[in-house]
Amino acid sequence: MGHKYSRGEILDGALETALAEGLSTLTFGRLARRLGVSDRVIVYYFPSKTDLVLSVLELVAARLQEVLAGAFTQRASGHLELARAAWPQLATDEIDPIFGLYFEAIGQATAGIEPFVGLAGSLIDGWITWLSGFFDGDPQTYRAEAEATLALLDGLLLMRQLAGGAAADRAAKQLGVR
């Protein structure tokens, strides 16, 4: 009898598959073949592709939040301060593939492709809500600063994905992030 996979092991396998082959090509069959199990095992834990993709994106977010938690040691007064703390942690070769998945999901949503359309809004809102907790001031300021931080970092990280680290670093310096 073969290895019995837990939900966590299957999710880790799904993340590895998405990193290797792309999030949009993640299917029950592809993941099952990679793990050497029946796709029924995958469906047992993830009843739909939306559940699987959402779980992978939640895992990506959790891993990025772990990385950023070390950078966000004190509350920030504004988006530049938080972006400055985040940039050295995010602008790395190790994190680039994770952001590749994030931007793939956003791109698929922008193109109107499900299940990404339905997931993108909650993905962005989740990041804004999480980032809001790192600011001083009133609640409306928290959200606006979190939105500005996300817009700034996403723009720089997209540039890093498309134009390379040196171009993103120059832009970060010009914008006052580095």
Main sheet? none
Secondary-structure-based class equals: mainly alpha
Unreliable stretches: none
For the terminal residues, how far apart are their CA atoms?
Answer: 54 Å
Q: How many separate domains make up the residues? A: 2
Mean pLDDT: 93
**Helix proportion of residues, in percent?**
over 70%
Order of helices and strands: HHHHHHHHH
How many separate helices? 9
Total number of beta strands: 0
Radius of gyration from CA coordinates? 18 Å
Q: Name the beta content range.
A: under 5%
Morphology:
elongated
Structure commentary:
The chain is mostly helical and about 180 residues long. It folds into two domains: about 45 residues, Arc Repressor Mutant, subunit A; about 120 residues. About 75% of the residues lie in helices and about 0% in strands. It has nine helices and no strands. Helix 4 runs parallel beside helix 7, helix 6 crosses helix 8 and helix 8 packs antiparallel against helix 9. The chain is elongated, with a radius of gyration of 18 Å.
